[in-house]
Amino acid sequence: MLYDPSEHRIRSFVTRAGRLSIAQARALEELGPRFLLPYVKAPLDVELAFGRKAPVILEIGFGMGATTSHIAAAMPDKDFIGVEVHTPGVGSLLKQIGEQGLTNLRLIQHDAVEVLNQMIKPASLAGVHVFFPDPWHKARHNKRRLIQPEFVKLLTDSLAPGGYLHLATDWEDYAVQMLEVLSAEAGLRNTAEGYAPQPDYRPLTKFENRGLKLGHGVWDLVFTKK
């Protein structure tokens, strides 16, 4: 059964009207037609979208895209699909795609749950990245957190056998919840005893660096599909 595709489910994000810079607007206009895939209620032909056959990694909620572009540039043998709802972030990453000449990255501006339900074929992904999702840190808002059992089951179903799920957060209580939820998913296996060392491919963000200097923690979790 698909994970709650109705319009009435609790969403993990709030759509906000951010200001587009001139450069972001230009990137949307000039690069959007090539690199921004439309949301459709049909399975995505990944080989057609990228013009080749390669392992595909999905990133959910890429923010302004610096981490995404860094990883895509470092892994030219893999293809990346970034999903983000906020227009300035999409424009920012398109700008980076143009500046860095990246050809292995495509974007979808839409709700990730609906993208997974409608566009991503089961057992088709080599990996999924979810870095620093909104912690919804107030207790009454915890139900809005993205990492819930039903969503993790959806992610697991999208992974090919041996594919990996990499999460990261700088909120300790969310890290605890993530570890509990992922450990309870029968289709996943933890690659570490608890939290994982930060994989080399994930760069430190400027906010993460700032937090680490202040003594804040960061927790990575890496699970693989059985």
From TrEMBL:
<comment type="similarity">
    <text>Belongs to the class I-like SAM-binding methyltransferase superfamily. TrmB family.</text>
</comment>
<keyword id="KW-0808">Transferase</keyword>
<dbReference type="InterPro" id="IPR003358">
    <property type="entry name" value="tRNA_(Gua-N-7)_MeTrfase_Trmb"/>
</dbReference>
<keyword id="KW-0949">S-adenosyl-L-methionine</keyword>
<comment type="pathway">
    <text>tRNA modification; N(7)-methylguanine-tRNA biosynthesis.</text>
</comment>
<feature type="region of interest" description="Interaction with RNA">
    <location>
        <begin position="140"/>
        <end position="145"/>
    </location>
</feature>
<dbReference type="GO" id="GO:0043527">
    <property type="term" value="C:tRNA methyltransferase complex"/>
</dbReference>
<feature type="binding site">
    <location>
        <position position="134"/>
    </location>
    <ligand>
        <name>S-adenosyl-L-methionine</name>
    </ligand>
</feature>
<comment type="function">
    <text>Catalyzes the formation of N(7)-methylguanine at position 46 (m7G46) in tRNA.</text>
</comment>
<dbReference type="Pfam" id="PF02390">
    <property type="entry name" value="Methyltransf_4"/>
</dbReference>
<keyword id="KW-0489">Methyltransferase</keyword>
<feature type="binding site">
    <location>
        <position position="84"/>
    </location>
    <ligand>
        <name>S-adenosyl-L-methionine</name>
    </ligand>
</feature>
<keyword id="KW-0819">tRNA processing</keyword>
<feature type="binding site">
    <location>
        <begin position="205"/>
        <end position="208"/>
    </location>
    <ligand>
        <name>substrate</name>
    </ligand>
</feature>
<feature type="binding site">
    <location>
        <position position="170"/>
    </location>
    <ligand>
        <name>substrate</name>
    </ligand>
</feature>
<dbReference type="GO" id="GO:0008176">
    <property type="term" value="F:tRNA (guanine(46)-N7)-methyltransferase activity"/>
</dbReference>
<protein>
    <recommendedName>
        <fullName>tRNA (guanine-N(7)-)-methyltransferase</fullName>
        <ecNumber>2.1.1.33</ecNumber>
    </recommendedName>
</protein>
<feature type="binding site">
    <location>
        <position position="138"/>
    </location>
    <ligand>
        <name>substrate</name>
    </ligand>
</feature>
<feature type="binding site">
    <location>
        <position position="111"/>
    </location>
    <ligand>
        <name>S-adenosyl-L-methionine</name>
    </ligand>
</feature>
<dbReference type="InterPro" id="IPR029063">
    <property type="entry name" value="SAM-dependent_MTases_sf"/>
</dbReference>
<feature type="binding site">
    <location>
        <position position="59"/>
    </location>
    <ligand>
        <name>S-adenosyl-L-methionine</name>
    </ligand>
</feature>
<dbReference type="InterPro" id="IPR055361">
    <property type="entry name" value="tRNA_methyltr_TrmB_bact"/>
</dbReference>
